[in-house]
Each structure stands twice: as structure tokens, then as C-alpha cells.
Fold this sequence. Notes:
Hypothetical Protein, Haloacid Dehalogenase-like Hydrolase, Chain: A, domain 2, metal ion binding, 10 helices, Rossmann fold, about 20% strand, alpha/beta, globular, about 280 residues
Amino acid sequence: MTKLKNIKVVVTDLDGTLLNPQHRISDYTKSIFQELHHQNYLIIVATGRHHLDAMAIIETLEIPVYLVSSNGARIHSPEREELFAFDLKSDVVKAALDVEIDPEITVVLFKENVWQTNRINERLNAFQAELKYRPELVDYKTLEDFAAIKIFFSHENHEKLVALKEAILANSSSDLHHAFSLPTCLEFMDKSVDKAVAIQRVLEKEGFSLEEAVSFGDGFNDVQMLSETGKGLIMGNAPALLKETLPDLEVIKTNAEDGVANYIASKILNKEFVMD
Length: 276
């Protein structure tokens, strides 16, 4: 196992990981990441969120950060230059939606500057402190252009999403793969798109290896990232099934306890004081 003294890169998910339950970065976490920057660590945020949404969050850190967004479909440099982009073709998305979908399920197509949805979901809006990435209500029956960065479904009943996943996989292109970022959130991307693949692109650009990276995550869209970096750490608030899927990985404090910042402070920066 990689020794933490060899770690040069810190990779973190946002929701349920770096962000607290109020979907914000705490002042303590901000101070720890600023110290990481001052000590010349490379920092990568890898999230399922759209880049416009995520950029508004990571700007509060006030340090240079690489951004992997939409589960790897976009990569932006610390200067906000787009380094990589991948969109699902319109016919692929249309085929995925050509199944019977419970009208209570929120359907979202992530577009470049807007998200197109079948219903306004205030719970999803609550994930944005400020609406940097706005919803647009559409009727998918009359929509002509289905091209999207990714397809997103949300419902409080996890089993409904599982049934929808099976229907889409049975009906759609084999080029799609899925992930549950949360039990209530099902996402479909191209099979070539994954956080770990995008992170590898950033590391190659910067001259680092996966073995030199530590990663933090709480969802099934983090599995490859957590598995392939030198040290993968699971949040205490992550679903039990994720912990069972990756039984060899260490489980740390929850996002409500500033688990990422506490771990970095004690294990990487070697600070004696950590937040309770």
C-alpha cells in the first residue's frame, strides 16, 4: 500500500464528501485545502455535478483546482480551460429514454449551459446555493435534440430507479454504463466516461501517477476512482453497500464531521489539531 508520505495529489468528490449536509464547504475544510495548495499538492475535484454548478462551489476554496465533472465527461484546468469534453449522441439518449418511465421520476439531460427536465424538482435545486446551472422544463415527446453530457434520473424510491436501470440497459446501446451517485440518483454515461479515466488524464498532464494520489468518495460513481488511486477512502456516511463493495478500503468520518479535512490534516499535513 502506498505510504501517505508519497502522496502528491488529493482527489475528492463533492456531494456527501467534501460538502457538508448543507451542500457547502466549511471554513475548516477551506483552510485545510488552502494549506494543501501552499504545500504544493495537486488538487482535483471529481464530481457528478455539471461543471457550471461545480465551478461555483470550488471557487470558494480560492485556490487552483482541476475540475472533473459530469463523472468524467468534462475536464477543466484551474484556469477554467476546457481540456476534455464528451457528449452522448442524440440517438443514444433518445433510445435510453424510449422506455416506460414513471412520471414521478425526475429525468434530466445535462446540456452545456442548461439542464432539460420533465419536472421541476426543488430537492435538486437545493443542491445549488445559487442557481448557476438552470433547469429548463421540456416535453421529451416533442424534443428534437437529445444530445447530452449525461442522463440523470432521481426518485426517493431506490427500487423504482433499479427497475428503470434494468429497462434502459435491456433497451439501449451497449455503449452506456450507469452509476448510482446516491441511492436516489441514477446516471447514465458513455462506457468510456469515468472519474478514474479523467483523473488519469489530469495526472499524465501534470506528471503524476495514480499511486501518488489519495481519493475520497461516498458513491458508486466513485468506485473506480477509489479503487485505482494509491489510497482510497470511503466517507462514513456512504451507503453500506459501497463499504461492502470495497471492503479493503478505510472508512473515515462523515461529511458532517469534516471527514476529508480531518483526514488530510492528521495523515497528510501531520497537524496535531483536528476538528471534532
